[in-house]
Amino acid sequence: METRLPLFPVTTKIESGKLTIAGCDLGELAREHGTPLYLYDRAELDRPASLYRRYMSESWPGNWSVTYAGKAFLCGWIARWACEQGFHVDCTGLGEIAIAVHAGVPREQVLVHGVNKSDEDLLAAFEHAGTIVVDNLSELKRIVRLRETSKFPIPNLWIRLLPGLAVDTHTYTQTGHSESKFGLGPQDFVQAVAFCRENKLPFNGIHFHQGSQFHDPAPLGPAIDSALDLALELGMGDEWHLSPGGGWGVSYHEDDLPHPSIETYVHFVTTKVREGVLARGLSTPHLHVEPGRSLVARAGVALYRVGTVKQSAGRRWVLIDGGMADNPRHALYGARYSALTVEQRQGGTLQPVWVAGPFCESGDVIIENLPMGDIHEDDLLAVPVCGAYHLSMSSNYNGARRPAALLLENGRAKMILARETTQHLLARET
């Protein structure tokens, strides 16, 4: 079972037969705050953040930025943490912009994405953002129309390129292939830039994104070449921005360890862009990377309580008090997870278990066919690598109340998201 520990945050230990994180007793936390409960280890947040800063500063000769992808997990504390790291905060739409503003993120550190931004989204971006990543020509036309009535200036505009290439990942998380809904192909991209210049819009950047949760950076190479060819054709000046997106992966299961190297990813991107800029005689762009998952996924652990252990014809079911309402990734992508019990019992035969939740869906399964030792009702189950695309994709299915989230640091726990109550569910009733 110790082969699973590298999936957990760096401060995770087994002490006196019990799992601890950042010196905190997980059983005590469950008793005080209830379950399901999400735990974020401060040390495991800071560790990859420092690696991104280090490798970008060592590898890139010009200006650079790291943008935290808010869609991975965004709350006020995380937004402030990203600012403290010197990162930008990527917001998709009005709701995430509101969270960033409430957290005090400065305008110049807010970057707004979105494939079909509403007028409300764009007006909020005018007021609160330093950069808008434009997806299509219709959006540019709306920006021109809204400029007439907005009292706020238009932020810098990057345009999203659809390179027609995808990374090796699940179909649902590929975003750069030719049939993707995101961005503009090269010909339409040139047309959009011409529109910006005709209408004196502040276009100054090229953005693309090929997918999420990939482990090999090589497929980024041809897309970087396409973006640099386009930059040359457009005559990008001395102060321009290039973002090849993010999406660098993590390992969710012990069979996939070790975790993909952040250094490998950053070195590939910076080397490819640097060589491409020199070969084309382009000025050095301000280079951006946009990690989300690789910053926060491993920092998060989901803590569940076992309610029932039962046997079907061919499966041993462990039924817990959370599931697809707080983690839809297995149902959406077939994501493969692992787990440990908080109380580590000695001995016992490993048997495969299926871990599932309480919701009225056969797809409400978190883990399939995972070897586990003795596990009983009322045990606590800790599922690692739960920091990204869980709480941000959670729902109130079956009236579920979304879990609380705690920040763990030096033996202390701080609540950063309160558990929803039935009053929250009823607040929208009329």
Basic shape: globular
Write out the CATH superfamily name of the largest domain: Alanine racemase
* pLDDT averaged residue by residue: 93
In terms of DSSP E residues, the strand content is 15-25%
Count of strand segments? 20
Secondary structure class reads alpha/beta
Distance between the termini: 50 Å
Number of helices: 12
Number of domains: 2
SSE layout and pairings?
Elements: E1 13-15, E2 18-21, E3 24-25, H1 26-33, E4 37-41, H2 42-59, E5 64-69, H3 76-84, E6 88-92, H4 93-102, E7 110-113, H5 119-128, E8 131-134, H6 137-147, E9 156-160, H7 186-198, E10 203-207, H8 220-234, E11 241-243, H9 262-280, E12 286-289, H10 293-296, E13 300-311, E14 316-320, H11 329-333, E15 340-341, E16 351-356, E17 365-372, E18 380-383, E19 404-409, E20 412-417, H12 422-426
Parallel strand pairs: 4-19, 5-6, 5-12, 6-7, 7-8, 8-9, 9-10, 10-11, 11-12, 14-16
Antiparallel strand pairs: 1-2, 2-3, 4-13, 13-14, 13-18, 15-18, 16-17, 19-20
How would you summarize what this structure contains?
The protein has helices spanning 26-33, 42-59, 76-84, 93-102, 119-128, 137-147, 186-198, 220-234, 262-280, 293-296, 329-333, 422-426, and strands at residues 13-15, 18-21, 24-25, 37-41, 64-69, 88-92, 110-113, 131-134, 156-160, 203-207, 241-243, 286-289, 300-311, 316-320, 340-341, 351-356, 365-372, 380-383, 404-409, 412-417. With 430 residues, it is of the alpha/beta class. The longest helix is centred in the middle third of the chain and has 19 residues, at 262-280.
Give an account of the 3D structure:
With 430 residues, the chain is an alpha/beta fold. The protein has two domains: 2-34 and 299-426, Beta Barrel (Lyase, Ornithine Decarboxylase, Chain A, domain 1), CATH 2.40.37.10; 43-296, Alanine racemase (TIM Barrel, Alpha-Beta Barrel). The protein is built from twelve helices and 20 strands. It has helices spanning 26-33, 42-59, 76-84, 93-102, 119-128, 137-147, 186-198, 220-234, 262-280, 293-296, 329-333, 422-426, and strands spanning 13-15, 18-21, 24-25, 37-41, 64-69, 88-92, 110-113, 131-134, 156-160, 203-207, 241-243, 286-289, 300-311, 316-320, 340-341, 351-356, 365-372, 380-383, 404-409, 412-417. Strands 4, 13, 14, 15, 16, 17, 18, 19 and 20 form a nine-stranded mixed β-sheet that branches. Strand 5 (64-69), helix 3 (76-84) and strand 6 (88-92) form a beta-alpha-beta unit. The termini are far apart.
